[in-house]
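REQUEST ID: PR-0412
SUBMITTED BY: lab tech R.K.
PRIORITY: routine
TASK: structure prediction, single protein chain
INPUT:
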Amino acid sequence: MPLTQRFAAVPRWLWLALLAVALMSPAIFGPLRLNDSHWINYSWSEQFTAAIAHGDLWPRWLPQSHGGLGAPDFYFYGPVAFWLAAPFGLVGLAPWPALLGAATLGLWFSGLAMGRFLNGRTRHPALGAALYMALPYHLLDFGMRGALAEFVAYATLPLVALGIARRRIWLIAAGYALLILTHLPTALLASLFLIPVLALTEAWKDRPALLRIGAGLVLGLMLAAPYLLPAILLQRYVAIATMTAVPALQAARWTILSPDTHMRDGLFLVGLIAAALALPALALLRRDRWGWFVLAMLALGLGLIPALWAIPLLAAVQFPWRLFVLADFGVAWIVARASWPMQRLLLLVVPALALTSIILWLQTSNQSVQPVGRVLAHHPDVIEYLPAGVSEPYAAFSRRALDLAAHTPPTRSTNGWTTVRLHYFPIWQVRCANGLVPSGAEPGTGLLRYRGEGCAVERRRLPIENFGLALSLVAMALLAVGPAVAARRRRQALTAPATTTLH
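STATUS: complete
OUTPUT:
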């Protein structure tokens, strides 16, 4: 049997799984990495999994962060990637192997989802699925940046696209909700740039499809409401504005046109990736108009229109080159759709795959910036989720909070007020002998304080959480009832007696 036929006989899910393991092998067999965002994933994953082990299936508050002062990280950060890591931790794996397991699953799922979307719509669905997994920005996302949530979000984009292509309301809703719950910046960029293009493409062929697509997106927002509403409406209680207040972290500064950027080496690599992705888009441009979409995403991702990233909504995504996630989707799509022979298509993606090889090789070096012992002992955390009003120069983590935790007693009382060694957030209420007492954030420290002494601090579910849950349940009910009603109407139409007109 020829080699191509033997390969075709292997189930796609199996060889995509093997490809995922192969692409992750430099990280799996390489050193523990705590550079960039890897260290915060390590700390968050350990606490997230521990909370699940104690029965909290959606741990929004991480109690050990900031040296034990706690942080409301998962009121604002998507939980899906850490739900993927939790089963590995629950069976006894340390946080780093658990994170590698989650990343490998996310990579595999991205190939499976892309393959499902491309099936029946392209000449080379297997190539498109494999390419989507192996493009350089995709592998850089986790391996070098530690952007686990953005890495896992790759698996959700093809689900949304598949739902739109099939006009399946439930699939659009489920895929869109998963995208939001996985990584909010990617969801925002997809909502502004990718989803409208997909929707208008389908509406051009079938205008009524736009109503079904819109209904699916609205139901997706409702499904994600338990996360989305708190993430938006509770920002006034944390110092999240620090991410855009510091000039070095403003999205408009992370462009190839910015003269004062402090990350020229990183931007050089991003520029090389953009050039490699532009090659297939340019080569296939006359045959496939989606090449324009890829080129637009690359141009905007490089920051060739800096003013765009000063718009408040887009400034919140922090890095313009997050748009490369959408560019990767477009490249896999146009390569899979091309009518060229496989050999010519592979030549187009050789530069991109060469960069992938370099990125995989770079993962074998140890670039840890934090000792693992420090992470486990003190659980440093990012400063954007500190209580609002706490002033601190921007840094990777809050040294001030760690110092405060180390030198603050469990409680202290002054002038009838008690301060607790715990960061304030509106989930806390204090109950004394005579009932609930006033509580809030201590000025300057952001610690919880209340009027009285010797009282009990209780955690409560916020009204906005309950409202979000109610919206999600309504969406589930509508998604369950809709198909049943449609099926009933079809049965009635089939069983209705035929009418005869007499003349």
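NOTES: The chain has a mean pLDDT of 91.
REVIEWED BY: pending
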